[in-house]
Amino acid sequence: MLRQPGNAHEKDSILKLLIQPRDGIAPLLAGIKAAKKSIDILIFRMDWKELETALKAASGRGVAVRALIAHTNRGGEPKLRNLEMRFLEAGITVGRTADDLIRYHGKMMIVDRRTLFVLSFNFVHLDIDHSRGFGIVTKSAKVVQEALRLFETDLNRQTYTAGHNVFVVSPANSRKELSNFIKQARKQLLIYDPKVADKQIMKMLEEHAKAGLDIKIIGSIAARSSNLKVTPLTSMRLHTRTIIRDGSQAFVGSQSLRQPELDLRREIGIIVKDSSVVKSLTSTFEEDWIASGFDEARDTVKVNAGVVPENVAKANRALAKEMSPLKITLKKAIKQAVSRAGKEAVANGDLKSTVKSAVKSVVKTAVKEAVKEITELT
């Protein structure tokens, strides 16, 4: 576990907080150019030619570069496959994620098996130049080793089991760790999230707010609330998922507080206690909050009314794209439902209703995922 703030080892383990769009691509390029032995990078989207060129150059000078590329993303599969071919031609080892989860949406890079970049943003101009995003660069040996284990597991399409409580991975431990992180708040929660929607998380936030905690959300929530202060980010596009707790700890990652991103997708984040990092995140949040022009007198949230008619065609296409990974997820859900029901359910005639419930849950999630995909570029 990362050590308490003020400990010299903790300060040494956290090298840098990346704030986008302020820091740009330079820290990533510097990390790649500094590599001496190896680079392991997980890619959901990439359109920065400078990054691609730097990775190819690293491979050319003898660095063992491995790129694990998502099997799918919304509307960009041809680009992913073309990127794979260009990397292979440059001598880079390329792997493709499995299709057992709806999305492999995590973003990270490991340099020389010693330095880990955990990012809330993709390697694209939209995220880095025009969106609020954060990244954590750390040399915490235990966290780096856990990230390497995740990379190897996904590269070899094996099942990952969480091994470190500050390295937050969906669906392995994110619900547990983020729920605990939120529960332990005593005074304040500052949250960046495009859409908080998970029912269990929403209930906890409501209970905290009723108990007098200061809860502010930059982004949106799924249901109307008279207790939570919510405002959209108006100065730029919002892409980060970040939670700052009591001014002393923070979570930075790729998972929103939504059921699919907690339970059905590969998402990656990290919890940090470094005082300077938390202070910088807090000040950035406060600046964004003031810039948003939040007004106490108005409703605390504007409820999303749904997809407008002209977007119905897009919704249908997005849903169609979800169908392929849904087949795998559906089979998995049915198997799990049958396994949980067991012989007793078969004997009592309850198996049909058990499987029906599992199918309904998975299809409902896929539909929600499709609707989100047309309203937010992830």
Domain module tally: 3
Beta-strand segment tally = 15
The average pLDDT value, as a whole number, equals: 85
Gross morphology is: globular
**Text of the CATH class of the largest domain:** Alpha Beta
Rg, Cα atoms, Å = 21 Å
In quaternary terms, these chains amount to: single chain
CATH superfamily of the largest domain: Endonuclease Chain A
Largest sheet: 8 strands, mixed
What fold name goes in the CATH topology slot of the largest domain? Endonuclease, Chain A
Low-confidence stretches: 1-10, 299-314, 343-349, 373-377
The helix-and-strand class reads alpha/beta
Helix content: 40-55%
How many helices? The count is 12
Percent of residues in beta strands? 15-25%
| Secondary-structure element series | HEHEHEHEEEHEHEHEHEEEEEHEHHH
What CATH architecture of the largest domain would you give? 2-Layer Sandwich
| End-to-end distance | 30 Å
List keywords for this structure.
alpha/beta; 12 helices; globular; Endonuclease, Chain A; seven-stranded mixed beta sheet; single chain; 3 domains; disordered C terminus; 378 residues; disordered N terminus; eight-stranded mixed beta sheet
SSE layout and pairing:
Layout: H1 8-13, E1 14-20, H2 26-34, E2 38-43, H3 49-60, E3 64-69, H4 77-89, E4 93-96, E5 108-111, E6 115-119, H5 125-130, E7 131-138, H6 141-155, E8 167-170, H7 174-183, E9 188-196, H8 199-210, E10 214-221, E11 229-231, E12 237-238, E13 241-245, E14 249-253, H9 259-263, E15 267-272, H10 275-292, H11 312-348, H12 351-375
Parallel strand pairs: 2-3, 3-4, 7-12, 9-10, 10-11
Antiparallel strand pairs: 1-7, 2-5, 5-6, 6-7, 8-15, 9-13, 13-14, 14-15
